[in-house]
Amino acid sequence: MSSLRIAVIGAGLAGISAATALNEANHMVTIFDKSRGSGGRMSSKRTEVGDLDLGAQYFTARDSHFRQLLQQWLDKGWVAEWTPRLFRFDQQGLHESADQQQRFVGTPRMSALSRHLIGDLRFQSQTRIAQVHRDDDNQWQLSDDVGAVHGPFDRIVVAVPAPQAVALLKQAPLLAQAAAQATMDAGWTLALAFEQSLPTPVEACFVRSGPLDWISRNSTKPGRGGRDTWVVQSTPGWAADHLDADHETIATHLQQALSEVLGLTLPSPASLHVHRWLYARPTDQCNWGALAAPELGIYVCGDWCLGGRLENAWLSGQQAAKTVQ
């Protein structure tokens, strides 16, 4: 196949995966993303109290090909294994709940992995692609939300959450219909930093009662420094019920829930950050892998195409790249 000009819309792990595979196949790839940086839901925030992982807290590796790639990332120091002291909180209270699952994190923050992977690829950040259309020469033109046009491109890969993908797939109705079936849950994240370490052995906790879903002592992850930092994430149901609440209300509720799980009266935090994820994770698991309309030159990938985990986002991007023709 001759070299193609390909636009990848979305710089999360699925988009980066597709872009790197297509670049290795000698295509001319440009990645677009609405955010300042890369990583999508691997987002991290750099603060004066340390780096805070606001999205995906860790990832696992089950697929043999992905595990081989992971070993390369480990050798390069891009990721490290995280072995937290793990607990579970349910109606019986808080209890230690160790398992054998290997967990990995980007170092020194989750989003660092995405920046390493992008490398020298052409990346146009802070560019929200609003619509795509084919011109008279059957080339793809991309229009952003401030009216600028990018192109032409021979192919496009859409690697954004399903609800956002629908709007970009109007010229591929069957793909739009499939994306419309893939619903996604919202979520709230609260990040806290304390001057003194909290007197608890908890370093990570799955929560199965109340508004919280997950608690992480962020500062225990490899490569993190600074103060005692914590990240708590809400359940999808609680987030749906409080979707439009102000940040102060969210912080109050989630701090109270954290206090109840840990059995502690929390001191006033030295730093606090609230983030809302409209599309935190897929509601249901799909096994599509990736979607494609080769006759139009448009392809779709994302964790919502394959099962919600970061590993699946990467595998979906690889599958999309393989189908490009």
UniProtKB/TrEMBL annotation:
Pfam families: Amino_oxidase, NAD_binding_8
Domain Amine oxidase: 99-324
Record-linked InterPro entries: Amino_oxidase (IPR002937), FAD/NAD-bd_sf (IPR036188)
GO molecular function: oxidoreductase activity
Name by which UniProt lists this protein: Amine oxidase domain-containing protein
